[in-house]
Amino acid sequence: MQIDIANALSGTARPGVSEEALARLDERVGPAHDRIARGLADREFGYTALGLPERVDPDRIRETVAPFGRARQVLTVGIGGSALGATTLTDALGLAGHVAIDNVDPVLSNRLFERLPLQETVVHVVSKSGTTAETLANFLCVRAAIDEAGGDWTEQTVVTTGQDGPLREMADRHDLPSCETPAGVPGRFAAVSPVGLVPLALLGGDIEGVLQGGRDAVAGLSGSLFDCPAYAYAAICHALERRDAVTNVIMPYQESWESLGEWVAQLWAESLGKDGGGLTPVRALGATDQHSQLQLYRAGRRDKLVTFLAPRDRPHVAIPETDREGVGYLGDGDTTMGDLIDAELTATEASLRAAERPNVRLTFDSDAVGIGEMLVALQAACMMAGELRDVATFTQPAVEWGKRAARGLLSAESSEEADSIEDRAGYVIGDDAAR
Amino acid sequence: MQIDIANALSGTARPGVSEEALARLDERVGPAHDRIARGLADREFGYTALGLPERVDPDRIRETVAPFGRARQVLTVGIGGSALGATTLTDALGLAGHVAIDNVDPVLSNRLFERLPLQETVVHVVSKSGTTAETLANFLCVRAAIDEAGGDWTEQTVVTTGQDGPLREMADRHDLPSCETPAGVPGRFAAVSPVGLVPLALLGGDIEGVLQGGRDAVAGLSGSLFDCPAYAYAAICHALERRDAVTNVIMPYQESWESLGEWVAQLWAESLGKDGGGLTPVRALGATDQHSQLQLYRAGRRDKLVTFLAPRDRPHVAIPETDREGVGYLGDGDTTMGDLIDAELTATEASLRAAERPNVRLTFDSDAVGIGEMLVALQAACMMAGELRDVATFTQPAVEWGKRAARGLLSAESSEEADSIEDRAGYVIGDDAAR
Q1: Which of B214, B219, B212 shows the shortest CA–CA distance to B376?
Q2: What predicted TM-score, i.e. pTM, was given to this entire model?
């Protein structure tokens, strides 16, 4: 792992961080790292997530999924942290045959069921509490669809949930293979656990590599941001937020890392979006969004940090010879598609730099070890940012309000949240009856 | 079309807009509407986009694609506005069989080629200038892949480009069916033209409906925001940006509208992200992102407007009976998946309202007419926001810098932009040779 912060320093960017300010911040990074290390050692809530790469037993996961053999198709039913980790890993590692239902949409679900080989699909249903409305509703639909297709859901389902709750009871009653969500770890920190690794195991992915990379990331943490890329990133984010760069554009320059950007956005937003602060993550994708968002990043408000995520190397795929003189530079025979997207990234960095817009580049390997390192390093960076801002990194109180309100609306049971919705008065413009 | 602005008013939200402020803004909406109407009537650059639903001839598009019959698979090769409109329309209308290559990624492109029935795939290559590097490089790869698969790209390609340029010359030389990109219309305003409608026509979609909806949207424009939902939305966005709500979360509550969110984000960012201002669009998706971003939206910095996009009705899909008492409210037999996601939306609106976070709800029909109305109404809203802020809505100068730099890097030819990259000094933390 590597970070280049040159384009975020005060000599180059406005706002920017001076090396003096970084040195002062570094005095706080030491104690904050000790706090994180202590939380890890003592298995404290949240901090213990950094211990997963050490604790998670790949053989235990393989044994659990062994009855299914090598799966042709895996369907994850979960939402938020219960689905994003698995999608991020299978996308980044190029494992075809994994899809997640992480939303409630009657139309798309039915279309998905028509497309999938339901009799051969292994369903991985994930909910820490076992009570998540969207996940349970979707799972009920998946069960029905499988049985309708002539399959048997009780033979095609593996469950990852907590020690008790409706899902656990269902797993016990139907004797389903199951794993446990890691204790003391919020979903967004659980990717490197059965939550994210079961689909990988079902598809024959390199879960040992992911765990190895996670251990490398933890081993790479140190008491100074100047030796530790993850903490350097946290410090830059923290310092820029205090200098009114309150938006963080997460921009991977590899299509297969698009879901990684979503994962980072959840990690950051849910962990640090509290007490009236926290960088707003903006999900972007290189090179596509150069043609969509770059205008704003370069010429809009000076309230943004752009975080580039780049692979260390790319496979060699030549661009075929062209018969167009005007675009000869594309088809001179030895220009590769990798050269093209690397040039796009370099050009985008430079265009932001020329406009004095702060940006940093994080570089990782694309293999399983590299992805595992990336996920855990970014979790550690998030923890450090939380320590520097002194927020409760591992809670998400604001999410719960909406959950209680939705449940209240659907059920008879009244709740403070649901009742508060009743007195809502609309101010509507436009005629509903227009059509 | 309908907008509910109750949750963005100053009595309810912080920041919020008072009705007095809206009345004052309305005095500027009248003249701004006259300006837009005059630009439309005189076919001025950009403004003329609102005339597309009237001018575009569906028969001309059908004749152009007639040689291909009803396509089983359509592959759009384009980037930014050249791809997003087509994806938005086919996704929203549930037309399976359309995919776009709108990025440069050697790995994913090759995986896509393996998956597609290349001999039966109709390729729609789109570039206004005909020189876009990513599009041309991808098209060269697609051509090679088709020929390798035993197809004949010259028999499977339809081109949409300007009156001249490399793509036009290629279309002429190989006698390919072709359409023209609309003159005087930036790509992000060209969805309701051959750029977005050709794939629809190939897949048997209702292009007349989309055009009808577009005409409805234009007919619905008026000189007062109090009679015109599109302008009301523009006024709310403008007023909130001036009150430091500088981020606009675009949150459709329908999975098939996810690409619509990306389309809106491009429209807004590229049109209004200039002169040091412009709302930063944040792409979100309901209900999924309640479990990812809502924590930040509700408890983070008070710098956000949340824009909900909701369908007027949803298909009736019952949630199967559940055997779990704990979640009985989901499976009481008559609760539908639509009830569930509607409850999630209502609960999320209420949770933001309870925290006094500004949010608005835009409601549209889900059919072709409704989607056409939505796209054109949002284009009109964007134009109005541009008038109210007095920016050059239809240019994107900051995008061009990166394009020239990338071309300079790939070719021998030196350019100011490419040369400026040479003197870049990195500040790297982390050991490249670590692994």
Answers
A1: B214
A2: 0.95
